[in-house]
Amino acid sequence: MASLTGCGGGDDGGSGGNASGGSCSVPIVNPDATQVSVWGWYPNLQKVATNFNNTHDDVQVCLTNAGQGVDEYNKFQTAITAGSGAPDVIMLETDQVPGFALQGGLTDLSEYGASDVQGKFSEGAWKDVSSGDAVYGIPVDGGPMAMMYRTDIFEQYGLTVPTTWDEYRAQAEKLKAAGGPLMGDVPSNVPAPMVALMQQKGAVPWEYDAANPTDLKINLNDQNSKDVLDYWANMVKDGLAGKQDQFTTDYISGVVRGDYATYVSAAWAPGYLTGAGAGEGADAGKWAVAPLPQWDPANPVQVNWGGSVFSVTEQAQDKEAAAVVAKELYADDESLKDGWVNQIIFPLNTSVLTSDEFINNQSTFFNGQTANKDVYIPAADAYEGSTYSPFSNNFYAEFTKEITAMNNGEKTGSEAADSLQESMETYAEQQGFTLS
Amino acid sequence: MSVLSKPTAEAPARPAAPPPRRHDPRRQPRRWGSHLFLGFLVLYFILPLWFLVVASTKDAGGLFNGTGGALWFDQGFHFFENLSTLFTYNDGIYLKWLGNSLLYAFAAGIGATVLAVLAGYAFAKFDFPGRRLTFSLLLGAVMVPATALVIPTFVLLSRLELTNTAWAVILPSMLNPFGVYLMRVYAADGVPDELLDAARMDGAGEFRTFFSVALPLMRPAIVTVLLLSVVGTWNNYFLPLAVLSDSTKFPITVGLNLWQGLAGANNGGGTSLYALIIVGSLVSIIPLVIAFLGLQKYWQGGLAIGSLK
Amino acid sequence: MASLGTADQVASSAAAATATGGRPRPEARKQLKGRGTNAWVAWAFLAPFALVFLVFLVAPLLYALYLSLYTKGLATGERFAGLDNYTRAFTDPSFLNGIWFVLRFTLVVIPVQMAVSLLAALVLDSLTSRFSRFSRLVIFVPYAIPAVIGALMWGFLYSPNFGPLQQIFGDSAPFLLADGGLFAGLTNVVTWQWAGYYMIIIYAALQGIDPAIYEAAKIDGATGLQVALRIKIPMVSSALVLILVFAVIGTLQFFTEPQVLRPISNGGITADITPNVYAFNLAFNYAQVNYASAIAFALGIVVFLGVYIFLFATRKRGGFLK
């Protein structure tokens, strides 16, 4: 409880650096304990790590912000190549885990008591960090997908909230006919949600098991994938959806301005938008969220975009201690609460997902809507997990090219799916995989 | 290509009067064409800076949906608010970055200059076996793209246990082959052999001759190489990005890019980082701009002197 | 372009151009201290630089060369590959397209850059007003701004939603980072960043010309344009050639600006747009250090050939590498 002052830990500046490492960004409470170095970039990790240090006698966390996302991965990649320089524990986005695991960069936590905490996570969340029997990370937060929408635009144009993708398209056409803004957006720079939407229709793009690391199955051009890509390619072609890159200032300003009636996104999106200045100005109180539209409403499928985990690296000095950190960092009630309240992430720990406070929280961003209860928790519960590509970065770079081609009208969705399949097969063979 | 035709257009305006060299500015007629052209260039080159100044007075809302547009002020004036957030956000990490940049730039700049002066002098004033080969090697080395070197350099630094330390940025940045080239060219001309020989006749040793005779003569080139090396390190992004993992050790370029990454992802943690990135960029360019303005007599002299002398 | 010190290399190199520019310099070499006994003194002066050169350039280079001769797939172990990576590079569309891109880009950006900087220098050289001194500084200032920050600023300014282009053109505003606008967009950023620096070099060289030459030309009845074309430009040609060489090297190794602007380019800037960006992504994102090293060396070979051809073509004017 006393650790509420954790955020003040940095105020004493230099005195915080009493640890041997000297570069920890949080105070080490027990200098005699085993120190575990952690890389992560969420701003509230300082609080989280302080909470951990205050409540652990034999293990202490030395936190470093090594850069956000790709910058951190680049450093980790260099460290793996060089054989040194990696931290003991690293925060990774979930889709990065198989790639680093494949390179021998990550420790299989099933040998270090991962099963102790398995019960705290849904099956889908656990599947995301597992490959066969191996477990390469402990989930922190996830991104159950949903459809955020602008109530002001929906009201103005008399739209109804779509529950299927057919309805979504119909509303988009209505919106366009009435001279309204775009219904949605198809960004080329973040293909991950498109992969999720393909999975929603039943596509299984990657089949891979760390137990047989050279065997790989790629299905990026089955009919389901093609249907989804064609659907969105046509949305863009018919002027119903934009082709603006996301996570950019232009997208944000477009969102705030009301250029898009919906934002098909994940549970962390309100945090992202708030941090970028949305939901405060012209668009304050105008957001609501509905479940993701479905292809077959009789058999709804929920999917996930993003989220992060803590993994133990293969270079970790003391893997036991590192595993303790991976399992218990960001797992105490106080940190978790700070996570969803201040950092606005969507925790995967069931202690949060089942707490009344979280369930009944009335989201300010969504104008008082109980978004967790109505939309996000059911979506997270129904998510069945997926297998990510063992070479996500290359996959995304190629997918970006294909979406760009789709958006520019150079390829249909089906054609894009075929050429993506082809380039991924070529790449996989080049990398020594056996395709089945 | 309209730019190209510009001087032709103003050429007739250039009268048969004596070319207005440095000696008598008053005799120069006003040259409206030339000034117009310059005015256009000034507008172009100052545009992004003007944007930076204007944008630094806006909050995130004003930045993206302000009433005045990108190049004019918004209704709200948030400059001081942005500035104070900039210096306090994340325990004032911005100031740390600024300090790091200064440290790296000056340590590496001074180091590079010292090495370049010594080596340039050796190339200019001594004939020794392997001189030509060494010098060609030095010039050829620039053609290898830096990306090839980053991972090996990282491996090397990690063997020396220097990754994630200031040395990892400073030591490689001390390598400035063209500083050597410049010093060589300058010393060959600017330090007469007769003076060196005279000093040697007087019984001065080689090092004493260097320090008492050559070094003072090389001063203008030294200032120039120093400034250029400092700027090179200050502006460097790739090397510190690769060899530093702890954000408290980042220089300002890598730090601002970290914020850009955080702002682009969902991870601002409630603070809008875009306004900080803008005001942070503005503050970060002030030291170097001041240094250049304040020292312009020296560096412009240094750049020109090789041909004026 | 700034990377592992490339920026300051370009910087000081260009400064060197000035030093050589203007007028022929006496052949100092023949009078050198040639006493063999003094070789150790020379090496003593050279030693500190040589040490840094060996440790931070030669050693990493050799190691990279070694790496480029091996291959390692994600699903396979490392094995010796000889020159396989190089044959792969020269048949890899990503690499070849990247080379093609930077070659085309060089042909566009360098004339623009040179035109702007040469014109600015000539105009500034002909003026002595207060405004011209002010202009000189303003044009030069971008050089003191890190390429990363410059690219970030232009990224904001290119915004089709809230940038100035939107205010001028409305919804039909061109987007300068994708499709047809990409070349213009990148050319603009690079020109803004470097033209002022090149301008200062040329300007310094121009200032070094003996005014008596102009007097003579005037007596012969030469116009201002003739003076510029027949006297000024030829007399600073060695500075121009050196600037060009380093502009060519820098442009072929184009990296920082596309890397920073890539995430906001709506797919216009790909992960393999230039060979250097491609090598970076191979090494850091795709875990292919061996192949990345080969790509970087292959690029080095292309750059070397390009510069060699360029120097050969301009050998009458240059000669600074002798």
TrEMBL record, chain A:
Pfam families: SBP_bac_1. SUPFAM superfamilies: Periplasmic binding protein-like II (SSF53850). This is Extracellular solute-binding protein. It comes from Goekera deserti.
UniProtKB/TrEMBL annotation, chain C:
Residues 99-312 form the ABC transmembrane type-1 domain. Its main location: membrane. It holds the Pfam family BPD_transp_1. It is found in: Cell membrane. Gene3D superfamilies: MetI-like. GO terms for biological process: transmembrane transport. Keywords: Cell membrane, Membrane, Transmembrane, Transmembrane helix, Transport. PANTHER family: BLL4140 PROTEIN (PTHR43227), DIACETYLCHITOBIOSE UPTAKE SYSTEM PERMEASE PROTEIN DASB (PTHR43227:SF8). Belongs to the binding-protein-dependent transport system permease family. This is Sugar ABC transporter permease. It comes from Goekera deserti.
